[in-house]
Design brief:
The complex is a heterodimer of chains A (273) and B (363). Chain A has helices at 10-16, 18-23, 49-58, 75-84, 109-116, 135-149, 236-250, 256-269; strands spanning 4-8, 29-31, 40-44, 63-67, 87-91, 120-129, 154-162, 165-171, 177-184, 191-198, 202-208, 217-222, 225-228, 271-272. Chain A is of the alpha/beta class and 273 residues long. Chain A folds into 2 domains: 4-94 and 236-256 and 263-269; 109-228, Dihydrodipicolinate Reductase, domain 2, CATH 3.30.360. Chain B folds into 2 domains: 12-132, NAD(P)-binding Rossmann-like Domain (Rossmann fold, 3-Layer(aba) Sandwich), CATH 3.40.50; 136-305 and 323-360, Dihydrodipicolinate Reductase, domain 2. Chain B is 36% helix and 22% strand. In chain B, the strands form 2 sheets. In chain B, strands 8-9-10-7-11-12-13-14 form an 8-stranded mixed β-sheet. In chain B, β1 (12-17), α1 and β2 (38-44) form a beta-alpha-beta unit. The radius of gyration of chain B is 20 Å and the shape is globular. The chains are: A alpha/beta (273), B alpha/beta (363). The A-B interface holds A 121-122, 124, 126, 131, 159-160, 162, 164-165, 167, 169, 176-177, 179, 181, 183-189, 197-202, 221, 223, 226, 273 and B 156-157, 159, 161, 163, 226-227, 229-233, 235, 237, 239, 241, 246, 248, 250, 252, 254-258, 266-271, 291-294.
């Protein structure tokens, strides 16, 4: 029997592949009985998701998992979760990939990128999604992935944006350029690529969509050669669920909302150039 | 070693104007693979030591004057590998000397007037001119051209990304270089330094792929630079747009050992990616990959690169077995590059802390 029962909105079920993720952690999570109360509420991250999450927390959910949230002010939700002792975990489309931020000191993209930012020449990033994708949603997913691995971005601005994609420019802490390009095409699998170029090499990160457990690739290049970090055959969805499990079992509070505030702040300051 | 069928008679003679690293590390090794059809007969350089040393490597005559090359009846094809500012006059002089073909390193002129004069002389003398945009002669690119269907008309996004170590790394894999140009530590706070580096980035590095970009940009004459940023120690991040295309150019020349040189053209439902081999080394052709959803089709690698492709074409042009390339296409390529270069320099300068006035950004 599972420890925690789960209920999901239809939108969250579809976008978050909730049944699949829950089935992959069967000793911890299981579906709530029809009409019954659930320990875990899963909601979709469309506009207004913070208010919906607050309601879930206040109605007694021990955990809330939000699928693919759009940038929104999260202070009220953070306060509500703190008061209720609830764990709020964000299932970010690419940023929740376990290859970006690992557990227990495992090598990950964040460590590789942050360790190399001091000698950065350029951080260039390309996100790909199917035609028809909302470019604002794509940009939010894209920036969330970038922010998961790098530090602050200064002077961010949208250079162009239309139905085929966008270009964003900013500056890294050491003054090097940051560029992010979004491309809408069905020619290639969706995903995000992050390339950090440094004085003698760099870091290449490629994160696929979370609809399968295909692994992200993180390659670190330096004077001694190239290192492929261990591949993790776990989707971003399942990684988010596993983090929720860990917080619930340990009684700890996730820092997802605090981290997400960086994305919300960055999105609010994006200016057309 | 690569061979093509030896033609009747002796090989065509080649004369070089300029014996620097490009001649030493690119052209002489490429010609060594084509000795059945082409033979270096004269090397000119303003430095007599360089001229004689480089010439001696291939058993050619040497001199310090352009006239000696142009008047040498053993020279059928003139290769112009001098500094950019001399290209136009030397191309014109080679055409008027009645040579069978001219190879000019890119850019073949520094402004539209020079380009027009070259076109006139080429037309009046009938001497074909090839500009050393080696990627357009790469078998990987040519294979892509054969298979790209309507992608040039449908692509909405074009991207060129060049990551290279300093030239010396690959020059040293190709030959034993003498007389490398001196390099210093640039003063990045000097706006004129940044402007010079951005111009050098576009006209010296991006220009390799701008003819490729133009093939996928039917409204190339309406190019607009949205943003241009300098990348240290040498490189650029440039965002361009036309009414129907977005174009992103990236380049980083750092101390990495790992080169990555890619060109991409992307439409709603199909995409082309070409991975080029680095300059200087005889590392075979580019690999062209078409993708359509989960399906990919790959062409290459083939046994030779674009530099060898250039020389194969030059030999055919000199023998009259191939039609000369369109002079207008060469002019259009140059005009496109000059427009991007000028606007890029302006844009980058406007964003530099040392800028004292706002510069326009439209080409």
């Amino acid at each position: 029997m599972s420890t925690y029962t789960v209920t999901a909105t239809p939108e969250a079920e579809e976008s978050g592949a909730v049944a699949l993720a829950v089935a992959s952690l069967p000793a911890t999570f299981g579906p709530a009985p029809a009409g019954g109360a659930a320990d875990i509420a899963v909601i979709a991250g469309g506009a207004g998701w913070t208010a919906e999450a607050v309601r879930a927390v206040r109605s007694g959910s021990r955990g809330v998992l939000v699928v693919d949230p759009v940038p929104e002010e999260t202070a009220q939700l953070a306060d509500a979760a703190q008061a209720a002792g609830a764990a709020v975990v964000l299932d970010l489309h690419w940023a929740s990939s376990p290859a970006l931020v690992g557990n227990d000191g495992a090598p990950d993209a964040r460590s590789a990128v942050r360790g190399a930012l001091g000698t950065a020449s350029l951080l260039d990033s390309v996100a790909t999604a199917a035609p028809g994708t909302d470019v604002r949603q794509l940009l939010a997913r894209h920036l969330a992935a970038v922010l998961a691995v790098c530090g602050q971005l200064q002077g961010a601005g949208v250079i162009r944006s239309n139905a085929t994609g966008y270009a964003v420019s900013a500056t890294l802490a050491n003054g090097a350029p940051f560029t992010a390009q979004g491309v809408l095409t069905a020619a290639r699998p969706a995903g995000v690529a992050i390339h950090l170029y440094t004085a003698d090499g760099g870091v290449d990160v490629r994160v696929p969509d979370p609809d399968a457990a295909w692994p992200a690739e993180v390659r670190v290049t330096g004077a001694q050669g190239e290192l492929l970090l261990p591949t993790l055959y776990e989707s971003a969805h399942r990684a988010a669920w596993r983090r929720l499990k860990n917080h619930l079992s340990a009684g700890t509070r996730p820092e997802d909302l605090a981290g997400f505030a960086r994305l919300t702040d960055l999105s609010a300051t994006l200016r057309p150039t | 070693m690569s061979h093509i069928a030896a033609p009747a008679g002796r090989p065509l003679g080649v004369g070089f104007l300029g014996g620097g690293p490009v001649t030493q590390a690119i052209h002489l090794p490429a010609l060594a693979r084509l000795k059945d059809i082409l033979e270096v007969r004269h090397v000119m350089d303003v430095d007599p030591g360089v001229a004689s040393s480089v010439a001696a490597r291939v058993g050619a005559a040497s001199s310090t004057s352009m006239a000696a090359v142009l008047e040498n009846p053993e020279v059928d094809i003139v290769a112009i590998c001098s500094p950019h500012q001399f290209h136009a006059e030397q191309v014109i002089a080679a055409c008027r000397a009645g040579k069978k073909a001219v190879l000019c390193e890119k850019p073949f002129a520094m402004n539209g007037d020079e380009a027009a004069r070259i076109a006139e002389v080429s037309a009046s003398t009938g001497v074909p001119i090839v500009v050393g945009a080696m990627h357009t002669f790469d078998p990987g690119w040519l294979a892509a051209e054969q298979h790209w269907g309507d992608l040039p008309a449908q692509a909405h996004t074009i991207r060129s990304s060049i990551v290279l170590p300093p030239n010396a790394r690959f020059e040293d894999f190709a030959t034993e270089i003498i007389t490398r140009p001196a390099t210093g530590t640039p003063d990045y706070s000097d706006i004129e330094v940044i402007k010079g580096m951005m111009q050098g980035g576009i006209m010296g590095l991006a220009i390799h792929d701008l003819p490729l970009v133009r093939r996928f940009t039917p409204d190339y004459d309406e190019i607009e630079v949205l943003q241009a940023r300098h990348v240290r120690p040498f490189g650029y991040a440039v965002s361009l747009r036309t009414p129907t295309r977005v174009i992103e150019l990236r380049a980083v020349m750092n101390n990495t050992w790992k080169p990555a040189w890619t060109f991409e053209a992307i439409s709603d439902d199909s995409a082309l990616r070409i991975d080029f081999t680095p300059s200087y080394v005889q590392a075979g052709s580019a690999v062209a990959t078409f993708s359509r959803g989960s399906e990919t089709t790959t062409f290459g690698p083939y046994g030779h690169n674009g530099y060898e492709g250039e020389w194969r074409e030059l030999a055919e042009l000199a023998r009259g077995t191939r039609r000369a390339p369109s002079a207008q296409a060469l002019i259009d390529d140059l005009t496109f590059a000059l427009a991007i270069s000028g606007a890029t320099v302006q844009n980058a300068a406007a964003g530099h802390p040392g800028a004292t006035q706002t510069a326009g950004a439209t080409a």
